[in-house]
Specification:
Number of strands: 30
Strand content: 5-15%
Mean pLDDT: 89
């Protein structure tokens, strides 16, 4: 037996299956008595899982016989322990590693069962429950032995074919692969594999088949239907993210095509956005562009037949595939090649032909003769629809649309397209009724299709709920949000034609109460499309779960579909309001005043209650009539409700939509109730009524729409709270109605998301049977995705976590920082948009700690903490180590914040985690971190001098010397820089040393601090630096905060800053003595120390402002990004009124400083993660200062303050990715010339990090301001400035 696992955090919730909802127990109030169950499962599903259906019936029968309930509670405690451990791999791993703790748990379980038996008094049903429970516990205990043996066997078998680090059993890997973007989960995978190369996969597949494990192919994990969710615990996930190769764009001959075609070849793990960028760099377009392009992978695109906004022009993945390669269920190769490619939509041709080759993976010889598969064009999609992925058989075409059920895609070649020269983006905002606006979609598409010389390259739609969710800013000069937004890309090779067409499209919108806006520049076009990428935010207001159904509707019937959805929403809204009235009535009926409430008049309350009940019944009667009369006409309102309307011949549903009929809780119910229960003595009644309304309002179900409108692909989303059974029931009923509506309009139930497990109940039996026969033919033993897309594979056994169900644990959450951590990640949508920008997500460097994965792991660990804190065993120290591991894998760069639809900043979460560990005294001691923080906290000049000599002058040289020696040794040629090992857990001391020395520390670091050189170390003196030859009455007075990096470490940065301020005639005020901003302490987890430093600094700065008020300081200058981030919290505007914060480079740009012309050197710019340039774009600042275009070099340098010293192993992984980027950009920059290449930056820590790449990349690193000083002030600028400053340039003011 293999374990399951699961995360519990209030973000990750989902509704249970329709089958369970139909079969709820009549004891609804006792749906969850089993403890530690923070999932969508009720007691029934848990009992089914461990004891079987018969035992559930026994429990139901015994429920009526309860007296004390002690035996029932003990049974439920046994089941609670089994369930929480079974679904949490961190708990499982702890028990596997600690036999003593496992023994304690098993003994406790048997003790409870024995106690139940002793109290059974011969009851047969109780005896049966005891027998079943003992067997469940025995199986549970045996599973640990089986798991331990199986892990050894799997590791031994697989490490012959791939690196040991690629075989993962740890909790983080398993929880990262148990679910996709849905957060549904059924079973945890037994093992996760991350092969390095495509050629490794066939042998791995063969071994896994021998081991009896079914294989789950997986890429980015962005699916919305559960296609990559394991259905059996005996499963192995093969993650293809390391297979991320992308070829150069080449023009090749395709079989049956008479001219060369541009193509790109990609590994299955290539991120779609990177492929799009590669095509764009060649002036071409990659057509397969789903909304998840930033995180989804090519293999998934093929397996799902993904589409996107460009599908309206060039079709989905299938339409654009030239060939693809996959491993079949026997572990051999299949290569599929498209013949006679029409270079357009596949359903437009009579027949599509494919050549299929079968290759032995060991001998590379053909297993059998090639086959030609010929498929009629109309078979690929339902006639009349632009998308349709419901036919999983697809005439037997391997790989495509099969959702990983017939093999594993390893690579693919796509054709590319040429976009017309001129592209415009049109944004249309509609303020009238949706029913009137939606037909404009058909009008626009028809008009463009009929206009020669122009194409529609994308047409996307947002409804009013999405408009609100994404924070859409209305472009029209109106006070309200639009009811519908359309965004279209229109392209032509003729600029005049595209302009005319765009203007006419705006006119179409004008005729339907709309306004239009046209974007021309790439930047403005990108801004128009930005909101479309944040649609996942629709679920933020619930617990970050949404039922995501994508249907396809014929274009001419989109209006009917939209009207149908609006009808559902009206019905759901009224139903919710009716349930609010019921709850309010129950509250009033059951209200009991507190004893101390002497003013309460019970007789008067009864009289008022009668009035309230009459009001409620009257309002309910009206609302019931409306919900049941939506198809009647306005004239019927007068007949039945005595309501006069100006629209007697208009259907009531339209009057509700137009707000001619208002169904308002506030005006029709709450306001009269407040009148009834007026006065101080009834305030608690009104408070309770409002609370009842707010509580029930959270259960309101609504349906939101956004569309790939050009091809009728409608994403129909329903946000849900999974801990609310009634809400889930309403949602599932709504889904059924949506599917029924789609089919009734000649649509299909999936256009690009697939079927997975979420749509199986809506797939017709004929389609299922056809695929079942195909599966029996190609994979009868279920080697791939066992059980998926087959009868019985729906949501019946699926569950999802829900921290909203916490009871006793909520007190624990409140008493520690754990609650804050949980709240910080509670809205995560698992969309993966954070992965491309995350410093610690570099799959090919064995680094897969994206915020998405870390959030899943963090929530699991929180559950483990909460559970174990309530047991006699107590919290395992192992969990703190795992918490440390996740917290360590973050450079606190905050880059994940920007792409996140719900604004989660995992950098801040990491700081909270480190602070929690520090407060619990469980933060791992690290010598490098301790020494670094000690140095930064010091203020005494003599101690700083000693530490500087020890760390910099001696330590750096020793490290560099050891690096040189190690490099000459046999192992030294690698030192983990090429293929760094995995860093799950902490490596041994020897490996950490190798990581620390594998790149040399910077050379020629100044031997003294800048203050020591200028003789201004006294913390009672405020230095004021002037160039008497240039200072005038108009000169700026600036306050320069150098920070630790520019003052204690790279003092040349601080001195260059001062020298350039001196040169431009500014009066520079420095703080007294050595000061740190407080950021390093905060980011390391010592939040209190960071606050203390910040507070002390602010007090001192106020004193400086009072002392030097005659200078009128208007600018605060920094030369460090983290200092900038921290100083923004200092509220400098209250210290130096009217001042602003600027980076030194921004200030110099304002002063029109430019570097002299330089020859023989090419520059790149590394923008720090903590970019100090907040006022101006860093690219513009750099270009202005250097007086030339400067190429930006992406990715983190890997230094990140003390990160490279405290966790050199993780830094090595990060640095591998940066080294690749430097090498690539250097090659593009110098081409055939022999110029030197310098990487400039604006962060002291980055300067150190970039300096360490010199040996392997042949580049030099420096600071922008230092480079300017060298070129503008001369090679001896530092000595010259120090001499000038020390000879009358410094005024020392006593503070």
């Amino acid at each position: 037996m293999v374990f399951l696992g699961f995360i519990s955090i209030r973000l990750m919730n989902a509704p249970i299956s329709t089958d369970f909802l139909k079969a709820q127990s009549k004891f609804a109030s006792k749906i969850r008595e089993i403890p530690y169950n923070y999932t969508s499962f009720s007691d029934k599903e848990i009992v089914f899982r461990f004891l079987g259906e018969e035992m559930w019936n026994a429990i139901e029968e015994l429920r009526a016989e309860r007296k004390t309930g002690i035996s029932a509670r003990m049974l439920f405690e046994v089941l609670g322990d089994l369930w929480v451990v079974t679904r949490n791999p961190y708990l499982q791993d702890d028990l596997l590693d600690n036999p003593k703790r496992l023994k304690q748990l098993i003994e406790a379980l048997h003790h409870r069962i024995n106690s139940i038996e002793s109290r059974s008094f011969g009851n047969i049903k109780v005896s049966q429950l005891v027998v079943s429970s003992r067997k469940a516990v025995d199986d549970f205990e045996e599973s640990f032995k089986t798991t331990k043996l199986m892990r050894k066997k799997v590791l031994k078998s697989l490490k012959r074919h791939t690196n040991k680090d690629n075989i993962q059993f740890d909790g983080l890997a398993r929880v990262s692969h148990v679910t996709d973007a849905t957060d549904w989960r059924v079973e945890f995978p037994f093992v996760v594999l991350n092969p390095d190369h495509e050629d490794e996969i066939p042998a791995l597949v063969k071994e896994l088949i021998e081991l009896g494990l079914t294989i789950i192919p997986r890429g980015g994990g962005t699916g919305y239907t559960g296609g990559a969710i394991p259905l059996t615990s005996k499963s192995a996930v093969i993650n293809t993210e390391k297979l991320d190769s992308i070829s150069e764009v080449t023009n090749i001959d395709l079989p049956g095509v008479y001219s060369k075609v541009p193509v790109v070849h990609c590994g299955a793990g290539a991120v779609t956005r990177r492929v799009m960028e590669k095509a764009s760099a060649a002036g071409l377009e990659f057509a397969t562009d789903p909304t998840s392009a930033d995180s989804c992978c090519i293999g998934g695109n093929v397996a799902m037949n993904a589409g996107g906004k460009k599908a309206v022009l060039w079709g989905t993945a299938l339409d654009n595939l030239a060939s693809w390669k996959m491993v079949d269920p026997n572990g051999d190769w299949i290569i599929i090649e498209r013949l006679d490619h029409n270079l357009g939509k596949i359903h437009d041709i009579d027949n599509a032909r494919f050549q299929i080759s079968f290759i032995d993976s060991k001998t590379s010889k053909e297993i059998k003769a090639k086959e030609i598969l010929e498929i009629p064009g109309h078979k690929f999609r339902k006639i009349g629809l632009g998308k349709d992925v419901t036919d999983k058989f697809l005439s037997g075409l391997p790989g495509v649309q099969k959702e990983g059920c017939d093999g594993l895609i390893t690579s693919a070649t796509f054709i590319l397209h040429k976009m017309p020269k001129f592209v415009r983006t049109v944004c249309l905002e509609f303020f009238g009724q949706v029913g009137d606006a939606v037909p404009s979609i058909v009008e626009i598409k028809k008009y463009i299709d009929e206009t020669s010389g122009v194409v529609l390259a994308g047409l996307e739609h947002l409804d009013d709920r999405y408009i609100k969710a994404v924070g859409y800013s209305t472009k029209a000069a109106r006070s309200q949000r639009p009811k519908m937004v359309l965004i279209a890309d229109i392209a032509s090779d003729n600029e005049n034609i595209v302009g005319q067409v765009c203007s006419h499209v705006v006119t179409i919108a004008n005729r339907r109460s709309g306004e239009g806006f046209i974007a021309v520049s790439p930047e403005s076009r990108k801004n128009f499309w930005a909101d479309r990428a944040r649609t996942a935010a629709i679920a933020k207001h619930t617990n970050a779960f949404k039922i995501n159904e994508d249907v396809v509707i014929p274009l001419e019937r989109l209006g009917e579909y939209s009207n149908g959805i609006e009808r559902f929403n009206i019905e759901l809204s009224i139903k919710n309001k009716l349930s609010i009235l019921d709850d309010v009535k129950d509250f009033i009926n059951n209200y009991k005043p507190v004893i101390e409430d002497e003013d309460f008049n019970e007789d008067l309350f009864k009289d008022k209650s009668t009035l309230a009940f009459n009001l409620i019944e009257k309002v309910k009667s009206k609302w019931y009539w409306i919900i049941n009369s939506l198809d009647l006409l306005g004239d019927d309102l007068n007949k039945f409700l005595n309501y006069e309307t100006q629209y007697p011949n208009t259907p009531i549903i339209n009057l509700v939509q137009n707000h001619e009929i208002i169904i308002s809780w506030k005006t029709e119910a709450l306001a009269p109730l407040k009148e009834i229960f007026s006065g101080r003595e009834f305030e608690k009644i009104i408070t309770g009524i409002v609370k009842a309304h707010q509580q029930k309002l959270k259960s309101r179900v609504f349906i939101a729409l956004h569309m790939h409108a050009g091809d009728g692909n409608v994403h129909t989303n329903i946000p849900v709270n999974s801990d609310d059974y009634q809400m889930m029931n309403d949602a599932q009923i709504a889904v059924s109605k949506v599917m029924k509506l789609a089919k009734s309009l000649d649509g299909v139930i999936s256009g690009e998301h697939g079927i997975g497990i979420t749509k199986m109940e809506f797939l017709d039996n004929e389609t299922i049977e056809v695929f079942k026969k195909y599966k029996e033919k190609v994979d009868p033993n279920g080697h791939f995705n066992k059980g998926k897309l087959l009868p019985g594979s729906g949501l019946t056994k699926a569950y999802t976590p829900s921290f909203g169900l916490l009871e006793e644990e909520s007190i624990i959450m409140e008493q520690s920082e754990m609650g804050e951590i949980a709240d910080s990640i509670s809205s995560c949508l698992r969309c993966g948009k954070c992965k491309p920008v995350c410093t610690t997500h570099v799959p090919r460097a064995n680094l897969m700690y994206s915020p998405r994965n870390k959030i899943l792991g963090t929530s699991l660990l929180i559950e483990a903490f909460l559970y174990e804190e309530q047991t006699r065993r107590g919290i395992s120290l192992k969990h703190f180590d795992e918490f440390n591991d996740i917290a360590d894998h973050c450079t606190v760069c905050h880059k994940c914040l920007n792409p996140c639809p719900v604004n989660i900043d995992y950098g801040e979460v990491s700081i909270q985690m480190r602070n929690f560990l520090r407060k619990q005294n469980k933060k791992k001691f690290n010598l490098g971190s301790y020494v670094g923080m000690t140095y930064l906290n010091l203020k005494d000049p003599r101690t700083i001098k000693f530490m500087h000599q020890l760390m910099i002058n001696f330590g750096y040289r020793v490290q560099s010397t050891i690096h040189k020696v190690a490099k000459k040794l046999t192992f030294g040629s690698q030192m983990f820089t090429i293929n760094p090992p995995s860093t799950v857990g902490k490596g041994n001391v020897a490996s950490q040393v190798i990581h620390f020395i594998n790149r040399p520390m910077p050379k020629n670091v100044p031997t003294k601090t800048s203050r020591a050189m200028l003789g201004i170390e006294d913390d009672k003196i405020v230095p004021i630096i002037r160039n008497h030859n240039k200072v005038t009455d108009e000169s700026d007075a600036v306050f320069y905060f150098p920070g630790c990096g520019s003052e204690r470490l790279f003092s040349q940065v601080g001195l260059a800053t001062q020298a350039m301020l001196y040169e431009v005639g500014a009066i520079t005020v420095l703080p007294p003595g050595y000061l740190c901003c407080g950021y390093p302490q905060t980011s390391s987890g010592d939040i209190e120390k960071g606050h203390e430093i910040s507070s002390d600094n602010r007090v001192q700065f106020h004193r400086i402002a009072n002392t030097l008020n005659y200078l009128d300081i208007k600018t605060v200058i920094v030369s460090c990004g983290t200092c900038m981030d921290q100083l923004t919290k200092y509220q400098f505007e209250t210290i130096f009124p009217g001042c602003r914060l600027l980076d030194i480079h921004e200030y110099l740009m304002e002063k029109q400083v430019k570097m002299n012309d330089v020859s023989g050197v090419q520059y790149m710019y590394h923008e720090p993660c903590h970019n100090p340039m907040k006022t101006y774009a860093s690219a513009n600042v750099t270009k202005s200062l250097l007086n030339k275009d400067v190429k930006k070099n992406d990715r983190c340098c890997g230094e990140s303050g003390t990160f490279a010293v405290t966790r050199p192993d993780i830094a090595t992984q990060v640095k591998m990715r940066k080294s690749e980027e430097i090498t690539k950009d250097k090659k593009a920059l110098i081409k055939d010339n022999k110029d030197d290449v310098k990487i400039l930056t604006s962060c002291p820590s980055c300067l150190q990090g970039l300096s360490r790449y010199g040996d392997e990349t042949g580049t030099d690193a420096d600071y922008i301001v230092v480079e300017i000083a060298k070129n503008n002030l001369g090679a001896n600028w530092l000595q010259d400035y120090v001499e000038k400053a020390n000879n009358g340039g410094i005024e020392k003011v006593l503070l």
